[in-house]
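Figure 3 (text version): structure tokens given as input.
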């Protein structure tokens, strides 16, 4: 009897490279652990043992033989197992190993995730996108349509995950591209649009603390390791201008020289917006929740900037940014969108990216352990002596460049988790201000433009079949260079203006 032919699913972009990385990591990680365990290091016992653990964790984060969230849980557990966690007794050591999984910064991320999920469930994100695209300024020509898609992606990714933003906009873009193309074949216009969406989402994530996970890692490291608090508004005063400048660069490169069309794209966008109908109750409740969160974040941040000590102190003690996110998102569970149906059900809420939350918790724990054991200070002193870092902006440029390079081969969250404690340690050892190099590393971690494997949004865009990998790599190199210049130049200009150095 002849069996039916078996069909195989096509491999995801970069699947072969991913397998090779994982195979190398599963061998290299334990090998480095053993080498560092027995190697003579000029640090204390706990720092020596933690160095071995960190070597394994970093290799596993880069190679991903297991999910990065699993490695984030494994790292503190292994540190506890081998005696790399300082503490006066067993209870104190266990608490130190796991307390950061309940860090307030994670509450900010969780509350933001809830609001973003509700936006997707009720279509508020799509309504915002179509509202922007239906403006004649962004639909009068194919080039303007590409810019409009970028503006949508940039704005939405300040509040939603970059991946969710890209997944939302790709089908919208595909519909508009089909109208613009008519019966022709996909070409430069499709490649430009499908590159603009993930690239703009990456850039938009810089704009707010909740825009992407590395931002929260940066905030937490600055607070816990350097005693520096950057408010929501202060972050936006840095991230939005740099992101906006990068959007200008994206638009100038990707929208240049695109073919024109006789099709009325504006009419198509207006019709698509009309098909959404009137505002539904779920959208209204979600919009109220979103506006409440942003309003309170802005109020708390402005009170700090304006030196309103009483108001700022009240927010810090009673309603910090993580609590604001939870208070605002709780509305989604309390106010119904329909009879017997809350605006956000727990089943929907449980779909948020809990793996990223665990990765944040594990990264914060390991960063704190590096500080408490003196490992980060020792690494900082060693790198200062080797690199000869003596200027603030030299270290800032080095931090941005290294972050951009690492983010091309591993996840931006893992890159931030690995790099930020080291950058802060270098700055402290060299007697330099911590904020600019730490922010440069944080922003640089989000710049992965070259490859489908660099970020999930890149992979989604490549998966449409409209973007040749050579085109992505060629454009990605250009945007990496532009991004590096904007990060370093933007911080050098903005930090003194805002009194942050």
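Below: residues designed for each position.
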């Amino acid at each position: 009897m002849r069996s039916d032919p078996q069909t195989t699913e096509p491999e995801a972009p970069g699947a072969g490279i991913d397998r090779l990385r994982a195979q190398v990591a599963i061998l290299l990680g334990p090998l480095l652990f053993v080498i560092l365990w027995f190697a003579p290091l000029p640090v204390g016992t706990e720092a020596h043992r933690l160095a071995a653990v960190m070597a394994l964790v970093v290799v596993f984060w880069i190679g991903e033989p297991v999910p990065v969230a699993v490695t984030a849980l494994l790292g503190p557990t292994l540190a506890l197992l081998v005696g790399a966690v300082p503490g006066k007794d067993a209870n104190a050591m266990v608490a130190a190993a796991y307390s950061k999984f309940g860090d307030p910064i994670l509450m900010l991320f969780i509350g933001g995730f809830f609001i973003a999920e509700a936006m997707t469930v009720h279509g508020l994100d799509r309504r915002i996108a179509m509202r922007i695209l239906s403006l004649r300024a962004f639909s009068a020509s194919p080039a303007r349509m590409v810019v409009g898609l970028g503006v949508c992606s940039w704005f939405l990714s300040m509040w939603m995950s970059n991946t969710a933003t890209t997944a939302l906009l790709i089908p919208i873009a595909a519909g508009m591209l089909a109208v613009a193309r008519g019966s022709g074949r996909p070409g430069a216009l499709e490649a430009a649009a499908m590159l603009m969406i993930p690239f703009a989402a990456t850039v938009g994530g810089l704009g707010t603390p909740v825009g992407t996970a590395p931002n929260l890692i940066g905030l937490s490291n600055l607070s816990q390791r350097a005693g520096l608090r950057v408010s929501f508004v202060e972050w936006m005063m840095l991230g939005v201008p740099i992101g906006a400048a990068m959007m200008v660069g994206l638009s100038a490169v990707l929208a240049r020289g695109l073919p024109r069309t006789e099709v009325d794209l504006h009419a198509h966008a207006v019709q698509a917006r009309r098909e959404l109908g009137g505002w539904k109750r779920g959208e209204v409740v979600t919009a109220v929740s979103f506006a409440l969160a942003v309003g309170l974040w802005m109020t708390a941040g402005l009170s700090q900037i304006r030196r309103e000590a009483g108001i700022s102190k009240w927010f810090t003690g009673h309603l910090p940014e993580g609590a604001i996110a939870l208070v605002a998102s709780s509305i989604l569970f309390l106010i119904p969108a329909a009879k017997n149906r809350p605006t956000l059900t727990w089943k929907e809420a449980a779909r948020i990216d809990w793996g990223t939350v665990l990765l944040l918790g594990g990264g914060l724990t390991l960063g704190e352990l590096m500080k408490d054991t003196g490992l980060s200070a020792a690494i900082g002193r060693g790198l200062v002596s080797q690199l000869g870092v003596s200027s603030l902006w030299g270290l800032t440029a080095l931090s941005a460049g290294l972050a951009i390079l690492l983010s091309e081969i591993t996840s931006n969250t893992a890159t931030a988790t690995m790099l930020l404690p080291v950058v802060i340690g270098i700055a402290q050892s060299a007697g330099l201000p911590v904020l600019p190099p730490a922010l440069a590393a944080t922003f640089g971690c989000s710049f992965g433009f070259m490859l489908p494997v660099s970020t999930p949004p890149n992979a989604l865009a490549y998966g449409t079949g409209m973007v040749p990998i050579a085109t992505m790599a060629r454009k990605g190199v250009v945007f990496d260079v532009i991004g590096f210049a904007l990060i370093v130049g933007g911080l050098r200009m903005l930090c003194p203006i805002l009194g942050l150095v």
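The beta strands are 336-338, 341-342.
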